[in-house]
Amino acid sequence: MQTLIEARExxxxxxxxxxxxxxxxxxxxxxxxxxxxxxxxxxxxxxRTIDLPLRVGLIQASSYRGATTRPLELRxxxxxxxxxxxxxxxxxxxxxxxxxxxxxxxDIIRHNSPRSIRxxxxxxxxxxxxxxxxxxxxxxxxxxxxVVGYGLDxxxxxxxxxxxxxxxxxxx
Length: 172
Ligand code: IMP
Ligand code: MG
Known about the structure:
With about 170 residues, the protein is α/β, with parallel strands linked by helices. The chain has one domain: Rossmann fold (3-Layer(aba) Sandwich), CATH 3.40.50. Helices cover about 20% and strands about 30% of the residues. The chain is built from 3 helices and 9 strands, in the order E-H-E-H-E-E-E-H-E-E-E-E. Strand 2 (about 30-35), helix 2 and strand 3 form a beta-alpha-beta unit. Helix 1 (about 5-25) crosses helix 2 (about 40-45). The radius of gyration is 15 Å and the shape is globular. The mean pLDDT is about 95. Magnesium ion binds near residues 35 and 38.
């Protein structure tokens, strides 16, 4: 494994994003909607740097099954989403890769009549998108490597690492 982004660097950039969001969402009824499971660490750190009244909700999306790095069929469970009618929704996910997950989530969330929907991701693998949307906010752009840590997993391992590391092809 090779460390790509140190814990201290992540904390600094996440805090900057939180301050930017606090400025842009002042006087808006903000709901931060975290995508399970990969967003949990980013979500927990980000919301504590947004100095505004806000609500937190969760939605579940999974596209990886077991020991594979290729997305399989996307499954979404929106039974945990709170009432977001007329609220400004910030969808928070770990990584924007093909963009398929965020694009599908946005389509589903639209049905709940929010006032607005924007997305924030920790990582953005640029140049891989298969959809036309892009994340509204991101912390880091990364090359096309399979990464783990700070919420991201490989076969459900490594989520607890406080830094981002790239797995070597022989680890996969
Ligand atoms: P997308 O739908 O292709 O944008 O992929 C988004 C989802 O795939 C993320 O929420 C992650 O769960 C997963 N994913 C994509 N790339 C990686 C990676 O490098 N490491 C771990 N998970 C990843
Ligand atoms: Mg995920």
